[in-house]
Structures are given as C-alpha cells and as structure tokens.
C-alpha cells in the first residue's frame, strides 16, 4: 500500500496507470477471442464546416490507431466542410451523403455500423481524440461483465489538460445515476451507444431532430422500461480544458426537451442544469422532528427559522426534549408550544440519538418526516419545498440538504461510504462559490447517504426499514445506516443543494472524538463497518482511483 501511494505521487503516474490498465484489457480480449466472438464497435467522427483540418487529422489518428481495432472508422461531413485527407485515411469509411449537422451524421453512421454488424458506436468530434486504449476498455468490460440484454449505453472517465506537462485534470465519474444525468452531462464524452437502441430513439422522435448527443443520451436513459447503463472505470475521452462546464444553455434545452411539462428547467452554476419538479396539490404533510437538550440559543434559532422563515404550506413541528434542565430552555419550549403547529414531547433518558428520534417519529402524523438538528439555521425560505419536490418523485428514499458551516464552506453535500473506511461528507470544506470536483456539491444527484442533520423521508419508508438503530448505532452512523437500508430496499437517496442551511455542527452534543465519547464511538464504528463492509466498499458516487482517506475527491 505504501509503495502504491508513493508511485501515485510521481510524475506521469497517471500515464503509467493508463498503460497498465490498457495492457490488462488487451489480455482479456486476447484470451476471449480464442473461444468467442468479440463485441463489434464502430467509431464515428463528424466533420463540421468550421472544423480545423489539423484537429480532424489528430482525431482520425487516434481512431485508426486504437490498440484494439474497430469494425470501421465512419466519417460523415456537412455541406461546405473540407474534404479531409491524410496518411491514415485509407482506413476510414466515408459515409455517403452530406449531413446537416453532427446528429444527422451520427444517425447515418449508426445505420452504416448496423450494416457492418457493429453493435456499438462511439461518437467523437474534432475536439475529442480517443485515448489509445478507449475501445479496448469497452470491449474488455463487455467480455468481463456482459451485462443484461437491455444494455444500451457505456461510458467512462475522461482527462483534460491543465497546462502542466505531466498533470491532467481527471474526471473519475460515478456509477450511473438517473437523477444526476438531469443535472449534468457526465456521460456523453467518449460514450458507447448501443447502435440498435440509438437508432430506435432517432426513429421515435421524427420529424423533430435530436439537437445534441446529450439529448440522445437522455432519451435513451428515460425510455420505458428503464434500460441498463454501465460505467467503465477507464479513461475513454480526452477533452479540452473546462469543456465540462461549457455550453450550459444547450444542456438546459436538452433537459427541457426531454422532460417537457414534467418540470421547470433552468441554468445552474458551472454549466449545470436545475430541474424544479412541481409540488403536489395539495402539498403532502411534513412533520419536522427536532431533538434537543438545553442550549436554548440554538433551539430558538432553529425553531424560529422553521416557524417564521419556511414557506412550505403544510408542516408541523415536534420538539423532542431529551431531559432538559435549563429553566430558560424549558420556558421557551412551553412558550413555543402555544403555536398550534408545535408539539413538545419528552424523552427523559440518557442521550441516544436513534431512540430519541424513533420515539419522536412515533408522535408524528405527517406523510413525510424531516429529521432536523437543533443546531440548524434556516437561511432560505424554500428549503423544505425543495426537498419535498425531490422526495415525492417515484422510488425516492431519503433526501438531504446542502449544509454550510457558519463561514459558508461546505459541511455536507452528500455522504460517501468507504471514505476513511467508514463514511465521509463529500466535498467538506469547499468554499461555497467554488466548483470543487466538477461541481458535484452544486447539483442535485443521487447519494449513498445523507446526514440526518437535515433529512426528509416518507414516514412509511422510515418504518419500512426499521427506523434508526437504537441498539448498535445510538449516536454515530445511524443516519448513514438508515440511508443504506433504504437503498437495500430498492429506493434512491437524493442530495439537493436547492435546500441550503447553516449547520453549527455538533455544538449541542460535542464531538465523537472527545475522550468521554471515544469508546462508544469506536464501538459504533466497528458495528457500522461490519454491517456495510465499509473498509472495502467503493461508494457508487466515489471511484476506485480516488483517495479513500480524503473527502475532497483527489487521486
């Protein structure tokens, strides 16, 4: 392990990994071709009228010099585009005809690929040469993990230049996430399209033309029933610096075309997309549960924010008092309980976060339950509305908010299991306005877990998985455990930055690593690790090549 860490820090360590991974994939292909037919791939390049011929030639070189040869390199061109030529063009098949744009060219290439019995097509453009082992990566993956019959799309990771010779910006991507793809195009670059399925999508949307590859990916992904899509943990595309956050308006329009009247779509930060689902009418009832003990200054800020600065039309508040003794706190709870939306319940026992909240949820009547820490400060009126909009979508388990420290840096933007051999807060410490790792803290997406400092879940789902674990996870990791149980039940958890609040983390109960809590924490850590194999598991929204010891997503 120490040797691997040392090698990873060396110049050109990434290039070394790419070469080793490519050799491993070629060995898989060589062994398989002795006894079976290999998957057949075509590569497609579209030449637009304003493309630079030198760049076209560079891309062509990358296509014809793949370490595993494609069935064909298919080139389409537009009216007015120059006739490309060069030493590698004897290996290129020009698709007959002139095409109006890249997507029409792709359709022509898909038809030509099908005629050659190619099951897959990888579209590229003049700004995206393929890494030498890109095609081998996909072929080896299909040989090793064939996938279901409805597999329609493969995608991988990408690299772009940073201006430093030996350093690349690596986008090491999450597994397929049907919510994240609506927020950000993390799939299109270097993706492999199932040729038959892609052609069917073109046919389904005639006479309206598909405008972008991203729109095609979205329409493939949203077909009914949902098809299979797989991530390959290899570098399959070389993109230009900052290409990931450019052309945001095109992405907004693609999502708008696909969702239609199902949602309102607008531009998000760093070229991302914001999808605003409508609230049901009437809005479902939400019971907000706040566990507390003394610390009236925290409780007052939290409760005032809920009662006075929350625009959601249908909620009530349960304050679960864990044996408070401070007269001011007790007086405040008596005072606020005069509000018809507020109910105070008593839990006069030793601190057990899971037990307190399970007890309080039993006192609720809402269709949804929102667990909210007493050290949360409301700063945006629509926080609860934003969470409900996501929670009411089909198949959703828990929804979590973006939580900021008082200095406005990120405290919580989803939880990734396996970080620290347990679970870590993704992107913790990132300045609020910084993109961080490809804007992952700024988009609504799936997550393995979200923190119960602000967590919304349908009451029936909370009870369906047994609530919080009072026995083995009384204080730590109970929220992550709850979320993983929801995922195990077939539900998806969601992180949404559209709900943003301040979290004065652990001011009420203290830190887990304090000496008086350490033994209990270590016991709960071991229970969590054993239950969810946290020492070995790779979170679907993390990546095998990312450093498990850090929350800020570095190789």
Could you explain how this protein is built, in words?
The protein has 555 residues and is an alpha/beta fold. It contains 15 helices and 22 strands. Helix 2 (13-32) packs across helix 5 (134-144) and helix 9 (296-308) runs parallel beside helix 10. The radius of gyration is 26 Å and the shape is elongated. The mean pLDDT is 93.
Percentage of β-strand residues:
15-25%
Separate helix tally: 15
Measured as a percent range, the helix fraction is 25-40%
Structural class: alpha/beta
- Main pleated-sheet profile: 10 strands, mixed
Rg (C-alpha, Å): 26 Å
Number of strands: 22
Poorly predicted runs: none
* Overall morphology: elongated
Distance between the termini: 14 Å
Q: Name the average pLDDT.
A: 93
Q: What's the layout of helices and strands?
A:
Layout: H1 2-8, H2 13-32, E1 41-47, H3 53-64, E2 72-77, E3 92-94, H4 102-115, E4 120-124, H5 134-144, E5 151-161, E6 168-171, E7 192-194, H6 195-204, H7 213-221, E8 228-238, H8 248-259, E9 264-267, E10 273-276, E11 286-292, H9 296-308, E12 315-321, H10 327-336, E13 342-346, H11 353-361, E14 368-373, E15 376-378, H12 383-391, E16 396-404, E17 410-412, E18 415-417, E19 423-425, E20 445-446, E21 454-458, H13 459-464, H14 478-488, E22 492-503, H15 515-532
Parallel strand pairs: 1-2, 1-4, 2-3, 5-8, 11-12, 11-14, 12-13, 16-22
Antiparallel strand pairs: 4-7, 5-6, 5-7, 9-10, 14-21, 15-22, 16-17, 16-21, 18-19, 20-22
Helix pairs in contact: 2-5, 4-6, 7-8, 9-10
